[in-house]
Amino acid sequence: MERTLVLVKPDGVQRGLAGEIIGRLERTGLQIIGIKLMQISDELAATHYGEHEGKPFYAGLVGFITSSPVVAICLEGPSAISTTRKIMGATNPADSAPGTIRGDFGVDMGRNLIHGSANEDDAAREVSLFFNDSELTSYDRATQPWIVE
User: Fold this and answer.
1) Active site residues
2) Residue 141 marked ligand-binding
3) 129 has a pLDDT exceeding 90
4) How far apart are CA 45 and CA 29, in angstroms?
5) pLDDT given for residue 149 in this prediction
6) What are 89-128's pLDDT values in tens digits?
């Protein structure tokens, strides 16, 4: 099973889209094993976006992600990373297909509603930044045999 981190960004929370976004992710068959509403600190944002430090857009990333609460989610399931990224849509909402989260609700690249881990290494690092092991739950879902062969 693969895990990935998803953040419903401040614009998604402020626009009242968190429930819609979470619902779309759940309907893929992926399982929520951790979820919380949180305010990201400057320190956590700096660590999360560390790879972009020194780039012209870095301060804007940190400023935005700390501007309002986010919903942090850990999803688990087969191909969790690629499935999540497909349902998210392209980083730039203008390039996102209809039916994706960004394609249906986004209009600006800087306000693109959702973050999802890019690959397995990023997912492992990001999940550990936002969740302690005690905040992640393993459980059997009655519908699982209808989702995964």
Assistant:
1) 115
2) no
3) yes
4) 29
5) 86
6) 999 999 999 999 999 999 999 999 999 999 999 999 999 9
